[in-house]
User: Fold this.
Amino acid sequence: MKLGDTHNRIARYLRIGVTDRCNLRCRYCMPAEGIDFAHRDDILSYEEIIRLAKVFSDLGVDKVRLTGGEPFMRKDIDVLLRSLSDVFAKVHITTNATLFSDHINLLKEIEISGLNISIDSLDRDRFFMITRRDSYALVMKNILDCIKNGIPTKLNIVVMKGVNDMEIIDFVRFGMEHNVEVRFIEAMPFNDDDGNRDVYMPATEIAEMIAGEFPSLQKLVADGSSSEKYTINGKQTVGIIPAYSRSLCSSCDRIRLTPQGELLNCLYAQTGTNLLAMVRDEKVSDGDIQQAIVDSVILKKRSGLEEEALIDKNAFRSMTTIGG
Ligand code: SAM
Ligand code: SF4
Assistant:
């Protein structure tokens, strides 16, 4: 069985937010004081995640990404990673790379398919200003360790005009020097007061800036991923993620499971299907869950713009609660 919607897309890629907690406080993501974090009892247990993972796998999902919050904040994450790597062909993680020094061997052992590491500045003071934590040296050390250990690593940079856009070219050069793909993400405004609207820099402008320095920049044919891909000199790959301009929705194959077990069809979807209630109801079978997932995904809207139009503007939203 496949997970189709009415716009001819098949969902094959599940992003699981394993926690809404995080040890950083990136300005574009969370307020300095944190958020009203979910209670432990209200988030999916590992057993529940694995049961759901098998149902998704039976429905044709073959790629999973652990995200959050910070996935490595979750206790014994190794247990979950091992189990998921038995279920899915491709297991990826998005992380801030502050907490996994002890996990590098495990990532090698399970042959992790990809690690996306977030780093928004190559300058210690600016990193601190953005994340509100002085973790630059640790993150950089872990990035270099991952590269040295042959872990397939990409870097995620949320671009903010006037804050870190002056580092775009430095990041491209860093990618060239270390043979690693860098991906620039448009900052997404989620709430009126998160300031992201003021610093928003569109994907087109990011590409123009890179082309200004590297005239051989060439856009590649879309490959169905969340980023527009470019090459420089046919060698270095650079990605630009139009997270807010949403120009790639027509090929989206992603669905999301929040820490609280809600299945969302889109980063901009405010409501979805409550799978936590289903896994905790002993009268509900895997077949029932499978049907609920099929019925949910078929309702996926054509684009994130359509989803956004339905959002209650007064409700607080953050990537950390959705599983960014
Ligand atoms: N803590 C992990 C990390 O930072 O990589 C995983 C969770 S984080 C929510 C996932 C990704 O979402 C990161 O690359 C982060 O930079 C990005 N992100 C968070 N809030 C965002 C926003 N408002 N706009 C664009 N990207 C955002
Ligand atoms: Fe934490 Fe990631 Fe959000 Fe930064 S972007 S506060 S590291 S969840």
